[in-house]
Structure formats: structure tokens, C-alpha cells
Amino acid sequence: MSLYYEDFPADDGAEPQLPPLLTAVKVPSGQNVMAKALASGATAEVGTVFYGEDTDVTDIALILGPEVPLRKAGQMLYAMMIGVGDAIGALAPPEVIVAYQLPGYVLLNRGRAGAVWVAVDPAAGREDVPSWMIVGVRIDMAVRTGNEDVWRDESGLEYTSLAEEGAGFISRTRLIESICRHFLAWVHRWQDDGFRPLHDLWVQRLESGSEMVLADGSVAEWVGLDEDGAALIRLDGKPVGLLPNEFESVCGPIGLASLEGRQ
Q1: Domains in the chain, CATH or no CATH each
Q2: Which residues pair with 116 in a beta bridge?
Q3: How does pLDDT run across 170-192, given as a tens digit for each residue?
Q4: What is the model's pTM?
Q5: CA distance 181 to 176
């Protein structure tokens, strides 16, 4: 019997109770949450949190209204990854160690359990303020069979889930609520103190020896993050800086397209 449980078990049929700045919108089972958010990105209110009805996965897409140029707006990827890590850390047993891997994977005890990614207004250049941005999150909650290859690649890391790591008692509703609260806390920290606190904690949790696997199967050497949050990698001996919204175009889809088979 686990010593960890929810004092007030969530009803996964109920709408998540989110902070005042956020509004929950349920996406029916079988529909792609990120696709729904993308279809609404230009018209949905800032702070809308689309979430999937299915309870064996936590699937959310949060609409943001950036007030900084695209080269800095992508820092919200790191705020969300840290928020997800803090949310799981607050709800799961201490044996569940959260780490990150490029370009946006969330690891539980060195197994891939989900991902975070961003999408932005394609008309925005690096120095433009995007008219909209979406941060997507997908975390597997339950033990699954059949689709695990989505989370595997040549790095040797395998698929896992909260249930497989001993945290199956966490409800999807509670995790959505916790992720949103922790994400907002880090956004406020970012507004007050800049990117440095996020940079330091994200790098601290980065999987040791992390590399970036590209869409063609090649592996780029990880160098670090620059002051704007671009991932610095070395390709064919040459340094390259990639903004978070460019990760999928270089590494292949980790968010929307790669998860179609898991709907």
C-alpha cells in the first residue's frame, strides 16, 4: 500500500479547477488536443487550457499571448517543463525522479513518459512578437501496450508512465491542476527575475549526456542554452542555435504528429 495518495480524490469527470487566469476547455475523447488548440490559436482567449477527456493520459494545450519577441517567447517551453517536473514531484513518491531530454521529453526514472513542445504563429520572425503561442504537454498516466515505440529512439531510453513508476494513484485532473499552478508560478518568476533561474534548474534536470536526435537519425552534440533559450548544438563541427519552436522541424515531431497513434 502506498503512503502517497490524494487527500481529496479528483473526479476525472469534473472540470479541473484552475487558477483565475486560466480557463479549462474539454476536448472529447478521440480528438487531438493540440490540433484543437492550433485550430483555435488565433481566436481563443489567452489562458485557455484545452485538455483531453481521456483519463489514461494527461494531454493539455495552453494558449499564450506573448509580449516579447519570438526569440525570447520560446522560454515558455522551459517554464512548462519545469512546471511539469514540479507538479509530478509534488504528487508522486520521492522515488520518481523527473528529468528532461532534448528536444522536449519528460523522463521518469530515465524512461520517457511524455513531452512538452511549443507552436507559434508561423508569420512571426525571431524579432517579432507572435500573435499567439501554444504550449503542449502530454504525460502518460497508465500502463500501456502496443504503442510504446512512440517514445523510443536510438538513445536506448524506453517508454514508461506514472503508473509504471508507482504513481498510478495520481488522477489526470489533479495533474492538470498541479501543472497549471506550477507553470504560472514559474512564469511569474520569469517575469520578476528573467530567464536565468529557469535556465539553471532546467539544465540541472537535463538527462546526463543528453544529445539531440535529428529527424534523419543523426545525433547532434549538446552544447548548452544561450541567454534567449535557444538550444546550442554542434552539427558537423559547426555550432547551431535552435529556438524551441524550431525543435520539431529539425528533430521531427515529438508533439502533435508523433502522438496521432496514441489517440
Answers
A1: 23-210 (3.30.930.10)
A2: 137
A3: 999 999 999 999 999 999 999 99
A4: 0.91
A5: 9
